[in-house]
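[SOLVED] Predicted holo structure with copper (II) ion

Edit: marking solved, answer below. Original request kept for reference. I posted the sequence and ligand SMILES and asked for the 3D complex as structure tokens.
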Amino acid sequence: MAWRKTSAIGAGLLAALVAGHLAFAQGAAPDPLAAADSYVNAPHNWQMWFPVAGSPMQEQIDWLMKYVLWIMTGVVAFVAVLMAYVFIKFNAKANPVAGHVTHNTLIEVIWIVIPTLLLAVIIIPSINLIWYEGDDSNPYMTVTVTGHQWYWEYNYQAVPGLDYTSYMVPDAQIDPSKGEIRRLSVDHPLVLPVGEKIKFDITSGDVLHGFYLPSLGVQKYAIPGTIQNSWTIINKPGTYYGQCNQICGLNHDAMPIEIKAVPLADYLAWTKIAQADYTDNAAPAAPLSSPLPANELADATPSAH
Ligand SMILES: [Cu+2]
């Protein structure tokens, strides 16, 4: 019996050694995107509201939406009560002889002044927010985002050669154990640092697309021949999703946006790896995967230019 116990201890020691070795091996080359797994900001079934805000911009959009919604709710309730009052009190049965009042100065002043004040308290925060959204000055970095039929291309302006394509993972290849989400996960996500101002130069290589990141407060059309700007600051590490939201053809639904947001040091470590891995796969596109069946792909392959 004693040898069995000894061998069990031996096996345990061996397992510990192997585990330690594996941990060391991982420690030697840590995954710079690991921090993005700590939080996932994805849509869910029966979602009724905006996604949880992941940037100061979206926090403000969220606030303004609720603020205006409360004012609207008050106006609608007030008008509904007034109408109900009129229907009951002044219908032909209850009030057979109509009155002849045509003017009332006090009421006319009230119904001009109060709506004007309501519009003023809506327009002031609205214009503030438009101003804030338009201020893309002094970004930490700028990414050129190009929409294509049907994938995205990301060019990191400050990292020489870092320009790559991002394709949706086809349904049949989705691996939920890796946290992949059907119709949202991509082969090469857009990697960004948290807490830094990131500017997007948004354009298109073919037709109109829409670069839409609902949890980060970004939504701009991608228009061929012109560049539209937007920006964001991502509050915390995590994985964020967006979609093309401008009908762009057959596979409009198959060009999601996946963002891996990581601390700045991890982002910088990633750029070193990505520079070697991703460089020069801009165009013609060489997707790791294609969401299309082979026969459709033949029709849909973008023409070389
Ligand atoms: Cu599109």
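OP edit: The chain has a mean pLDDT of 85. Thanks to everyone who chimed in.
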